[in-house]
Fold this protein.
Amino acid sequence: MGDRLELGPLELKVLEVLWERKRAATVRGVHPSFPQLAYTTLMTTLDRLYRKGVLRRFRLGRAFVYVPRCSRDELFGQMVSGRVAELLATCGDSTVLLSTLVEAVGNADAELLDELEELVRAERERLKWEDK
Amino acid sequence: MTFDVTFPLVLLAAYGLFNMLLSAAVVFAWRAGLRRHMTDADAALGVRLLPAMGSATLVLTVVLPAFLLYEPRHAHDQPGPLLVVSALFALLVLGDGVRRGWRAWRATRALVRSAQPHLTDAAADGAGVTVINVKEPLVGVVGSWKQRIVAARCVAAACDHEEFRQVLAHEAAHMDSRDNLKLLMLLMMPDALAWLSTGRALTDYWRAATELEADERASGADPRKRLALASALIKVARLSLASGLPRRVPRKSSNLSGVEHRVRRLLAPSPAIRRSFPGRRLLTCALLVPLLAVPLYASVHRLIEALVTFGR
């Protein structure tokens, strides 16, 4: 897999589904998770992921079976690390990038963040009022 | 088989057996609800390290001296299948640990080699942070020995001064507790847990707990600092959403690290981190094992003999 791996939103979604399944899947097997997509679109996406080296594939009868080459964490590390390599060079260290705040806060959605922001705003107001 | 061959085989087999037993004990305890009794990162770390460290301690302080003291140098033993299988298992476990370490080393080397193209700004400000121009909202600590805080320019721009200070304080807390080094240890542990979901759950739990502890150490009981960190977390999460990075799906075992939990926790009055894990007591016990085992060396040697000949 190359160091400069770039994945589109659909590719990431397809990968998420494959990671969740934890087993190999055909295009037909993945398609129910993307009912809005044409079968051929999904087939092209899986083929593109295979060509990028993210997926492995095997022939099963007339169809291909796809399986992720690495875990979510490994891929995440690769994608981010390609861009922060210079930092390791400046550190003069020889260990991997191990933790990031992004990873830690990654499991949120926009609506939840709106709700949390509301709480922060309320707390800010409360502290201001206390200061007065 | 001569002493020179039996000796390493026995050590390996003992390591393999202890490793299997301790890994099974950890899996059993975890499934029986050990998680509910663990309240800090050190507890998770201790439990995760137990199979490998415990096995190594037992082998080096009990099996090794017992074997050296009681095994006749001229003895010729024919090894039984249990000894061989256990030794092979130990080799597999140790080899896989080395492989994971090697992979980490290679990944780092690849990073360092592909260093230059994205380096646009490596200026360190007063807080000792390297700011970089990348589209991802990266904030983190790199390196496990020589550590450094890195932050994407977009994060620095999105946060106000106090928020960014709290983000840096959070990362500094990770540095102080050497969390990267501990994580590297966890990744390289030569044990059967590394292949089991319980091992991954423990590592996830540990990571989640370190985030909470870093939050607490960064902001303490000051409500303004806590508010600033909570606000920064939301901003980083928003940037993360916009950047299209692959996101972790929260697992049931580690959902305490989610942004919601962390923000709500920061907005509540500071909870004291309860350190219920008796780490020092356990360490004392571990140190006492070799002493207590001295009178048992003869019995231990008989067990070793049984292991060597079992199934023959």
Q: What stands out?
A: Chain B touches chain A through 70 residues (CB under 8 Å). The first strand of chain B starts at residue 129 and ends at 132. Residues 119-267 of chain B form one domain. The CA atoms of residues 80 and 306 of chain B lie 9 Å apart.
